[in-house]
């Protein structure tokens, strides 16, 4: 009994060609899909005082502007001195894309860090 080459794969050469073409089309479609970049994180667009700024006198307030609207219930800011102590800030206002606070005391010479956390509104 003679067996044709296509019958070994259970459907003949036509089935193999069809399967190959289908796989080729799937591969071409998959290759043509490009990842669309997305911004997964809200970006800080502007800060007053600016990051790494050296100021002549103690700032009276801190203002931050972000790329997305903020959820006030899950956003906040703190000011830390170079000893790691938290400096009292007053009247944190979060509205739209902006976060503002007043500094209640005059800051002495030193390095201060503004820590902020946020949740943006989609």
Automatic annotation (TrEMBL):
<dbReference type="GO" id="GO:0042597">
    <property type="term" value="C:periplasmic space"/>
</dbReference>
<feature type="domain" description="CopC">
    <location>
        <begin position="41"/>
        <end position="122"/>
    </location>
</feature>
<dbReference type="InterPro" id="IPR014755">
    <property type="entry name" value="Cu-Rt/internalin_Ig-like"/>
</dbReference>
<dbReference type="GO" id="GO:0005507">
    <property type="term" value="F:copper ion binding"/>
</dbReference>
<keyword id="KW-0732">Signal</keyword>
<protein>
    <submittedName>
        <fullName>Copper resistance protein CopC</fullName>
    </submittedName>
</protein>
<dbReference type="InterPro" id="IPR014756">
    <property type="entry name" value="Ig_E-set"/>
</dbReference>
<dbReference type="GO" id="GO:0046688">
    <property type="term" value="P:response to copper ion"/>
</dbReference>
<keyword id="KW-0186">Copper</keyword>
<dbReference type="Pfam" id="PF04234">
    <property type="entry name" value="CopC"/>
</dbReference>
<dbReference type="InterPro" id="IPR007348">
    <property type="entry name" value="CopC_dom"/>
</dbReference>
